[in-house]
Amino acid sequence: MTETFSDLQLCPWIVRQLGTVGITTPTAVQVNCIPQILAGKDVIGVAKTGSGKTLAFALPILHMLAEEPYGIFAVIVTPTRELAFQIRDSFAIIGKCMNLRQSVVVGGLDMIAQSQELARKPHIVIGTPGRLSDHLNSCDTFHFKKIKFLVLDEADKLLGGYFDSDMKSIFSAVPENRQTLLFSATMTDTLDKVKQVAKNDMFLWQQSNQVKTVEQLHGYLVETLRKFNTKDDGGSIIIFTDTCKNCQLLSMTLNIIGFKNVALHNMMRQSERLASLHRFKSNHVTLLVATDLASRGLDIPLVELIINYAVPVTIKDYIHRVGRTARAGKTGYAITLVTPNEIQLLKDIEDGINTKLLEFTIKSKDVAKIFTQISVTKGECEIKLEECKFFEKKEIYKKKKLILEGKDPDLQEKILKRLKEEKKKKKEQKHKKQKTE
C-alpha cells in the first residue's frame, strides 16, 4: 500500500513542500487518481467532502507544469466563487517555490482587470462557468487552445444541466487532446455526460463504503416527510436547521420537489417572517423550515412532528426545539437526523435529558431511488441562492458607488449596454470577414 507522496512518483520538491505544511500521507483519492493522471489518462474521482480531491488534481498538474512550463497550462472550472478561491489557495501553497502564476475568473470582480490577467497567460486559470464563458465570447486577447488540463470540480453540479450553455462554450474553446479530470462528492446519473466529455482513456475511481454525509441527509429527510405525509390528520411539521443559509436552501429544495413550505430565519425581512408565520399558523402551509428563531415563543398546537435537520449544539436548544410539539394535550414526535461526526452531540443530549432516544428506521434503498433528483435539485438551488445574493449586493454596491461619484446609475447602465452591443457587432463582423477570406 502507498504510504507516502514519494511513492506516487511526484517531483521531490512537491513532496518537500507538502511536508513543510504538514501533509505527509496521501488520501485514498490521491493514491488512486494521481498515478493515473500522471500516466495521461482522463480521470473521474468520486469521494466525499474533505477527502483531498483538490490536491488529487493539483499535485499532478504542478508536477507536469514543472516539466513543461508554458502559457495557460490548466483550466479549472468550479460552480461557486468560494470554491474557486479555495482551489487557488491550494495551488499557491504547493506551487509557491516555482513562481506559479494564477488567475481567478469569477463574477463580482472587474472584467477588464481579469482580461488583462488572462492576456498575460497565467499557468492556472480557475473560474466559474458564467464568467469564463463571458470572457471566451467577448475577449480575443487569450485562448485555451493549447491547455494540457481541463478540470471540473464539483462535476455533478457543473454537468447537471444548469450550466449547459456556459459549459458548451468552454468545451468548444479547449483542445480535444487535453486531459479531462472530473471530481465530485457525488456523480450519480451525470456519469453518462461525463463519458461524453472525456476524450481519452478514462479511469473511474469511486470511494467505497462512504458513510452518510450531509448531502445524503436530504434523502432521509424526504423519506421521513413522505412517511408522515401519508397521514391526513392536519398535523404540521417544523424542520430546524443550523444556519439561515441552510434554512433557505432546504426550503427552496423541498418546494421544488413537491413539499410546499415556508421558511423562517433572521435574514428575512420582518414582514416576510410575519407572513410565513401567519401562513403556517393558519394551516395554509403545514411545513415550516426554520432556524432556532422559531424554537422559542411559538404556540402552534397542531405541530405533530419536529425534525432536527442538524443536531442541536446544546441540550437547552434541543429541549426548546422539541418543545414545539406535543402541546395542549396533543401527541407529537421529534426526529433528529445524525451524521457520524454528530454522534457525540447526540449522546450528550441523551445524557442531558436522561433518555435513550429510539431509532427511526428509513430504508436506504428508498433513499437511493430519490437521491439523484434531490442532489441535483439541491445543487441548482445552491447556485440560484448564491446568484441571487451576489447580483443583489453587486447592483446595490455599483449604484451607491456611481451616486457617490456624481453619476446617474440609469444613464451609466444605458451607456454600458450600448458599448456591449457595439462590441458584439464588431465581433460578428470580424467572424464574417474571416469566413469570406
In short:
With 437 residues, this protein is of the alpha/beta class. The chain is built from 16 helices and twelve strands.
Keywords:
437 residues; alpha/beta; five-stranded parallel beta sheet; single chain
Structure description:
- Residues 34-205 form the Helicase ATP-binding domain.
- It comes from Rhynocoris fuscipes.
- The chain contains 16 helices and 12 strands.
- It has helices at 12-20, 28-38, 53-67, 81-94, 111-119, 129-138, 155-158, 164-173, 191-197, 214-229, 244-256, 270-281, 315-322, 343-353, 364-404, 409-436; strands at residues 42-46, 74-77, 102-105, 124-127, 149-153, 179-184, 202-206, 236-240, 262-264, 287-290, 303-308, 333-336.
- A 7-stranded parallel beta sheet has the order 3-4-2-5-6-1-7, with helices on both faces.
- α3 (53-67) crosses α4 and α10 (214-229) crosses α15 (364-404).
- The termini are far apart.
- Residues 209-215 have low confidence and may be disordered.
